Amino acid sequence: TLSSDEEASASAESIPTPKEQETPGKSKPSQPYAGKVDVDLTVLSSTMVYSEVYNMLYNDPAHYLGKTVKARGEFSIYQLVTDGVLQPDPVSYACIISDAAACCAEGMEFVLEGDYTYPDDYPELGAEITVIGEFQSYEENGMTWYHLVNARLA
Question: What sign does the CA torsion over 111, 112, 115, 116 have?
Fold first, then answer.
């Protein structure tokens, strides 16, 4: 059997860090999903993918800006509630990524490239999706938020 040091080493070798996923000397692609993915969350375990998403959104988002990200999760929408009334139109779309125990989840908001209409051009709520897009920030109501832009569903 492997010692805990050997197991840690083996798992660390099989999961590339975001730094290892970068291609030195390359500028960011003009079309994020034109074949190059900088951060592929679909190859990570559920524990690692949740940790990586948390890192992207809260701990070190600047490290990921401009990188092409591939994520798998459950399709969801965010809607506004105004004066206690749920507004009918979605405000944004997200890929909900859960941890191993399915007790915690983070939503990776995305904006599809092109002209799409909800609900006709989107998956059913709760459907498993894979989304690929460029990680970027935006400002809204004095807050900084993060999402995948120029995205597509794979």
Answer: negative
The structure's pTM equals 0.73
**3-class secondary structure, 5:** helix
Phi, psi of 3 (to 5 degrees): -75, 165
Q: What are the tens digits of pLDDT across the range 15-35?
A: 444 444 444 333 344 444 457
Residue owning tokens 């990524």: 97
Complete DSSP assignment for 39-57: EEGGGS-HHHHHHHHHIII
DSSP string, 69-138: EEEEEEEEEEEEEETTEEEEEEEEEEEEEE-TTSS-EEEEEEEESS---TTTTSPPTT-EEEEEEEEEEE
